[in-house]
Amino acid sequence: MKKFNLSVITVLTVFCMTTCKDRQQTNPFFEKWENAYEIPPFNRITVANYREAFLKGMEEQTAEIEAIVNNPEMPSFGNVIVALDASGQLLHKVAGVFFAESSSNGTEEILASESEIIPLLTRHSDQILMNKQLFEKVKCVKEHADTATLTQEDRRLLHETYLNFIRSGVNLPEGQASELKKINEELSKLENKFGQNVLNETGSYQLIVENKDDLSGLSSDQIASAADRAGKAGLPGRWVFGLDNPSIMPFLASNDNSELRNKLLTAYLNRCNNNNEYDNKEILKNIVVLRDKKAKLLGYNNFAEYTLERRMAKNSQNVYALLDKIWTPSLKKAKEERAEMQTLVGEGRGLTSSDWRYYAEKLKVAKYNLSEEALRPYFQAENVVNGLFWVTNQLYGVIFKERTDLPKPNSDVRTFVCVDKDGQTELGVLFIDLYARPGLKTVGAWCGTYRDAYQDAAGKRVLPLTYVCCNFSAPIGSEPSLLTSDDAETFFHEMGHAMNNLFQNVKYHATGHVPSDFVELPSQFMEHWVFEPQVLAQYAKHYKTGETIPQDLIDKIQAASKYGQGFATTEYIAASYMDMDYHVNASPETIDVPEFEATTLNNRGLISQIPPRYRSTYFKHTFEGGYSAGYYSYIWSEVLDCDAFEAFVEAGNIFDKEIAARFRRHILEPGCIDPADELYRQFRGRQPDVNALLRNRGLE
Q1: What pLDDT is attached to residue 83?
Q2: C-alpha distances in angstroms, 178 versus 118, 173, 462?
Q3: Helix 258-269 to helix 353-368 angle, to the nearest 10 degrees?
Q4: Does 597 qualify as catalytic in the annotation?
Q5: Domains, the chain, ranges and CATH?
Q6: What does the pLDDT read at residue 10?
Q7: Hey, which bits of 195-318 come out as E strands?
Q8: Would strands 414-419 and 399-402 be described as parallel, antiparallel, or unpaired?
Q9: What's this model's pTM, rounded to 2 decimal places?
Q10: Fewer CB within 10 Å of terminal CB in the chain, N or C?
């Protein structure tokens, strides 16, 4: 450990000395943050502060690990397992802020720092989890602890800690252990590079429109947004469209120029597949190769087998079985949707992938007299936020109090304190960052934490600091941000994660982590309320007149609620198959990315007009990590969330407080104190019914 510690210090010290220009200033990470709720003082933190704090954080945790190893007392649950879980507080502190910043404000300096730091963190983690002396202490506790004196959470922590060491290769012979360390470090570099390439390629593309006639079909809001983007890019008098969702998706659904739609979609689908500096094909191949080697070193047949061991699905056979069950009806529905749209295209030409959203929107108008542009005026961003707060109050009794006096990472962010139903107990702090920042902010939407909930040494709950990041269209001038119905659903989804973070009530850091195929349950669960008539009546107000959304529009939303599910489900399942196949069926050394992708999709009969939700070269979920051999998690969790919502439907009250309290108690609060399937049974009283998902999507 000493040797590793000194080598890390040498690398990072040289790095910091050459970049830190304000060494005389106190590093904010070395202070107790005296502001209310100990929120990071964002405006005082520099990139050099991050680097210095990571260095010191690793140094401190290394010393803490050495103290555990060298403790002459008999190994116990307290002096080994609890001490290990409590180690690295400074590292937790800086990592929570840094990785939030790199995702939402990815400047060149931040991304360069990220590329330096991630391999060092990987090396540091390996040095802990492959420390044989430390493992002997963990093993001793597992074999000799009096489990009768431990709580269920204690026992879970012990089990998970022991398993972490086993799965990290602590029992490997020295030569294989060294090889695994090299693989882990190289993977961390490749995965980080993959994600940065996607960010850069997405942010650098511009479709510049010079002829106003080429804007035909777009709304005035879309045109104004494109003009605003052009102005910021130094292109006055023109219109600029990008590959971020707030720009490309409305364009594909509305623009009458089929050539421009095709041009923009082609650029979107070919991200990081252009044989340039951002090309991800070779990086992807190397990731698959290294993951396969890692799994086999650890005694698994493939990487999917390794990752699924700790998830609800347990094995790839169970994943494929679920995907197959949903694929058949969704593909059938997609073909029906294609046939309907072809009637609008006519016999002159076939429907293309760049036509799909355009004609799907026209068909939606024809069938239901409902369009996105008719809905947008009722989905003002601020009102959608208030609608979510109203729903959580009705379900759980909590309230969100906005605070303008608290530190925040940038001017777009709004900050709230969540107060429990007793009106006094504060559950945590919420930061909401809604608007896109192309080239800086990672595409998509996500929820994270600057600090997780846990109990300190005195047994007091440390309040979580959670944030929700989205990429919605920002306000322009005096005009507010108007969301699409998909945007509104996305916000409710991410706030489901946030509620999970705010309610979580665990003692240890490690017991707050749940499997990826369970973690999407709280988020997707919240989506069920966004378009309920009772909820729409509360928040869907016309941004100009203040008029509540009329009943005829609500009726149309309900009638069209299952429209387009063939496309939506098929594109998602296609990406899930691709993710699984890369980690189960690929021959890593000889893989050809375009050919492998085409084979995976064609063999299952995916129709040409529907590309997978993510093509391989920008599939960040799986190749940047987090959802590797795990993109199926959303549909696995959807089985749970649809079944969970049906509990309210069966009760005849979507705001049934007793059911909501049970959901909070068994799903939102306990982390992984019990296995995920057991937590769900405690809530529902039985196993979930997959048919609830099929009913919800109209795929029975």
Answers
A1: 98
A2: 18, 9, 38
A3: 120
A4: no
A5: 2-171 (1.10.1370.40), 205-269 (no CATH)
A6: 32
A7: 207-209, 239-241
A8: antiparallel
A9: 0.92
A10: C
